[in-house]
Amino acid sequence: MSDVVVIGSGLGGLTCGYILQKNGYNVTVLEQGIQIGGCLQCFTRKGAKFETGMHFIGSAAEGQTMDRVMRYLGLSEDVRLSRLDTESYNTVSLAGERFSFANGRDAFIEKMSGYFPDEKDALCRYMDIIDRIASASSLNSLTSDRRDLAASTEYQTRSMNEVLDSIFSDRMLKNVLAGDLPLYAAELDKTPFSQHAFIMDFYNQSAFRIAGGSDSIAFSLARSIEVMGGKVLSRKKAVKIHCDDTRATGVETADECFYHADYVISTIHPNRMLELLDTRLIRPAFRSRISSIPQTAAGFAVYVKFRRNSVPYMNTNYYGYAGDSPWNCEHYTSADWPKGFLYMHMCHQDKAIWAESGVILSYMNMEDVSQWAGTSIGRRGAEYEEFKRIHAERLLAEVEKHHPGFLAGVEAYYTSTPLTYQDYTGTEGGSMYGVAKDINLGAAGRVPYRTKVPNLLLAGQNVNSHGMLGVMVGTIVTCSELVPAEQIYRQIDKAND
Predict the structure, then answer these.
(1) Are residue 426 and residue 392 in the same domain, yes or no?
(2) What is the domain count for the chain?
(3) DSSP code of 59?
């Protein structure tokens, strides 16, 4: 039985661990922190539970792609889902006007054409393109058969805004359709339309929150790995990937333990992975290219605990903007921050009436907190705490403008900055989604799942695509180096019989 060591216990690491342990490998997953899960981690303050990364998922209705993957991974019994409002799973507010996204192709077109009646035909063409792109990818088909490579290639090289401009004439409609861009930190003239298409298709099929917290996904996968004979170890920070002249031989942790490996799979940020390697098998040119790839924007979060029975549960995701455009909110001054925000409620139970907690997210550049670089959590001093307080109150006040009475329901709040995110996830510059997708870079901007070390593979959001489905299906691609993809897809089909 071959030994596989997986670095990182986020969704990518645990999914890799599950697939490979299920298919006869001896898997050890190493997590540097106390809690497993990566962006699936939750935390609790004063009885209120908060999500840190995985706030909602899509295509999880019966028979849809995520539902099929979750059944295969044994998550269906352990993970409780709560469906978002099918008539308004997303709400985008631009210049004081609100627009709702409805689930399903026909419902979406009818809803959106109610706001923009002259654009109904264009909306039909738009959804046709979305469907064509989604169908061309293994993200949706869960097969190795990619049926429309031309569509996949074309829309990977055209920017999101350029394609929207080519379809629609109404400026406001184009901005509404881009209104959920914080989900993938899209940038003007950079983000490929294919990225937008995958996200739109994923959530338009169906949208759910995870009742009780997304950490249930991590705990379920870890239990399954261990039941099958694998190991998931916390407080095991990888400090070195050992290599001989031809391949990786194992992973050393900070507590001086060594884990032999026939294969190593790294799911941490590729820059962190390269820091663990001291081998001539990785050329300086590769290191330079990876380190130069731009990252997605970082963020500032305010986690809100509400007074009991004071704030009705909001069964939609709310994207609020000060102006009439969602673009360039990552480019701000101290005077106009925040230019936009994403506001969501945590789902403590299905069909909740009152909200117990929520989160508000806005862009924040690492430069804003650079003076505290190199400091540790809880020891950054009074100036840092004051910085967080000022920005939290500005963000809370912005939400109050959109939801009058909101502040009266706030009992307490907690904050995180790009430094917080960097400390807990190891992502470069505190970026929310790791490596950015940029059409201007072409192949130079992509991180391959294979490396020049033959038995060192990569997985996670930096390799394939952001989001739960992107990460999960990306792990199938990585694992197919060890297990035939057709075998994995057959197992998925069998789990759904």
Answers:
(1) yes
(2) 3
(3) S
